[in-house]
C-alpha cells in the first residue's frame, strides 16, 4: 500500500512540474508574439515596455542596434503598408531561474497567401524583471534559399 501511495505522489509531483514548465514556456512564447505584434504595428510604446534598457539587437543585415535605435526605427513615421504574417516554427525554449533563451524560425508571408516571402532564424534572450519577462537580446539571421 505504501508503494502505491509513493507512486501516486511522485506522479502528482511530476505532473505539477511539467505543467509549471509548460506555463512558463507558454508565457515566453506569448512574449515573442507580443514582440512580433509591436514590430509589425510599428508601436514604439509597446516595444519600450517589452525591451529591457540594456536591449541589443543584431539585425538581419548584421547591424548592432541598441534599444533607442530600435525604438527610433519603429516610429509610426517609418511604417510601411506591408504588414507581414509571421509564422513561428522550430520553437525551442530554455530557461533557468530568471533568464530565458528562445530560438525559432520566422517565416514571413503576405495575408491570404501560403507562399513564403523569406525566413529568418531568431534568437531571443529574456530576463524576468519583477514578474515580467523583458527582452535583453535579439539576433536575426536570414535563411538564404539554396540554389538547385
Automatic annotation (TrEMBL):
Residues 1-20 form the signal peptide. Residues 32-134 form the DUF4440 domain. Keywords: Signal. The keyword Signal applies. It comes from the Bacteria. Gene3D superfamilies: 3.10.450.50. InterPro entries: DUF4440, NTF2-like_dom_sf. This is DUF4440 domain-containing protein. It comes from Thalassotalea marina.
Amino acid at each position: 500500500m505504501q508503494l502505491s501511495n509513493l507512486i501516486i505522489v511522485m506522479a502528482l509531483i511530476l505532473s505539477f512540474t511539467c505543467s509549471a514548465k509548460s506555463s512558463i514556456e507558454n508565457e515566453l512564447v506569448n512574449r515573442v508574439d507580443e514582440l512580433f505584434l509591436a514590430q509589425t504595428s510599428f508601436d514604439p510604446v509597446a516595444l519600450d515596455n517589452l525591451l529591457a534598457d540594456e536591449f541589443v539587437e543584431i539585425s538581419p543585415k548584421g547591424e548592432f542596434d541598441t534599444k533607442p535605435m530600435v525604438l527610433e526605427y519603429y516610429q509610426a513615421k517609418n511604417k510601411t503598408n506591408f504588414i507581414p504574417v509571421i509564422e513561428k516554427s522550430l520553437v525551442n525554449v530554455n530557461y533557468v531561474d530568471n533568464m530565458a533563451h528562445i530560438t525559432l524560425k520566422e517565416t514571413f508571408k503576405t495575408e491570404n497567401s501560403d507562399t513564403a516571402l523569406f525566413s529568418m532564424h531568431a534568437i531571443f534572450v529574456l530576463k524576468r524583471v519583477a514578474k515580467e519577462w523583458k527582452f535583453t537580446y535579439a539576433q536575426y539571421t536570414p535563411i538564404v534559399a539554396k540554389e538547385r
